[in-house]
Amino acid sequence: MAVSANTLFHFTAKESLKGILSSQGFFAQYSEEHFENILPATSIYRVTLIPLISFCDLTIMQLTRDSVHTTDFGNYGIGLTKKWGIKKRVSPVVYVHENSQPSTQLYKLIKLFLKYDKEHEAAEIISQTRRELIDSFKFIKPYQGRWQKGREILRGKGDIVYYNEREWRYSPPLNQSKVLSGIKPSEKKEQVKLNATLKKKLIRFTPEDIKFIIIEEKNEINEFIKTIDAMSISKKEKNELITKIITFQEINEDY
C-alpha cells in the first residue's frame, strides 16, 4: 500500500466543505500552534498564531483505517492534486523534536538576532533576516504534542503523534501576514479579529484540480449535488465533479 498520496486532502465540517466548493477556494485562518515540546519555558514562541490552510498527504485507505484524523478535523473533505498544491506553494511541514538539530539551530539563530537588535542599531538586512527566520516557524511542527486546533487533547494514551498527519500547509507570504508569538492559549478574540484580515485573499482551485469530494454517508449525496449545481461552472464540469463524490460509508463497505 502506498504510504503517500498523490492528493492533498483538506478535512472540515459539512457546511465548511459546501462553502469551499461554492467559492472554489480557501481562506487561510490563524491557527494556534504549540511548541512547548520543543522550546524552553522562557521562549515567547511556545504558543504562536500562524496563518495557514492545512492539508494532509494520506491515502484514502489510511484515512478510513485511522479515524483519528477525521475525528480531529471533520468527516468532510476535498482532495486536490499535488500539482495544484505545489503551484500554490503548499509545502510539507518539517517535524522536529526537542533534541533535533533544526529546532535547536533555528531557536539559537533567532536569539542571536534578537540580541543583536538590542545591542546595535540593526541594519535593514539584519532586521529582514530576523523576520524571515521567525516567519519560518510557519512550517515547523513538533513531532508530538497535546494540542489540536487550540484545544488540549487528553486521550489517555500519551501525546498526539503529529507526524502521522503528514501535514502540508499553505501560509500567506510575509508581506501579507505575520506570525504572532507570545499568545496565551485562551486569547480567542484576537484570533477571530485576525482571521477577518485574511479573507481578502482567496486561494483558488478549478474543478479539474479536484480529485475527490469526500462526505460521510450516501444519503448526503443529493445535498452535495445541489451545492455543485449552484457553482458558477459549466454543465460538463458539474457532471464531472458529481462523479468525484465518494463516501466513507461506501469505502468502509467495499474495502
Strand content range: 15-25%
Look at the helices and sheets and give the structural class: alpha+beta
**Ends: how far apart?**
13 Å
Which parts are unreliable, with pLDDT below 50 for 5 consecutive residues or more? none
Secondary structure: helix percent: 25-40%
Helical run tally = 10
Structure description:
The chain is an alpha+beta fold and 255 residues long. It has one domain. 37% of the residues lie in helices and 25% in strands. It has ten helices and 17 strands. Strands 3, 4, 6, 13 and 14 form a five-stranded antiparallel β-sheet that branches. Strand 10 and strand 11 form a beta hairpin. Helix 5 runs antiparallel to helix 6 and helix 8 runs antiparallel to helix 9. The longest helix has 19 residues. It is globular and about 60 Å long. The model has no long low-confidence stretch (mean pLDDT 84).
Provide a quick synopsis of the model:
Helices cover 37% and strands 25% of the residues. It has 255 residues and is α+β, with helices and mostly antiparallel strands.
Write the layout of secondary structure elements.
Elements lengths: L6 E6 L1 H10 L1 E2 L2 E6 L12 E10 L3 H6 L2 H6 L2 E6 H6 L3 E2 L1 E3 L4 H19 L4 H12 L4 E3 L1 E2 L1 E2 L2 E2 L7 E2 L5 E4 L9 E2 L6 H11 L4 E2 L5 E6 L5 H9 L5 H9 L1 E3 H7 L1
Parallel strand pairs: 7-8, 16-17
Antiparallel strand pairs: 1-5, 2-15, 3-4, 4-13, 4-14, 5-16, 6-13, 9-12, 10-11
Helix pairs in contact: 5-6, 8-9
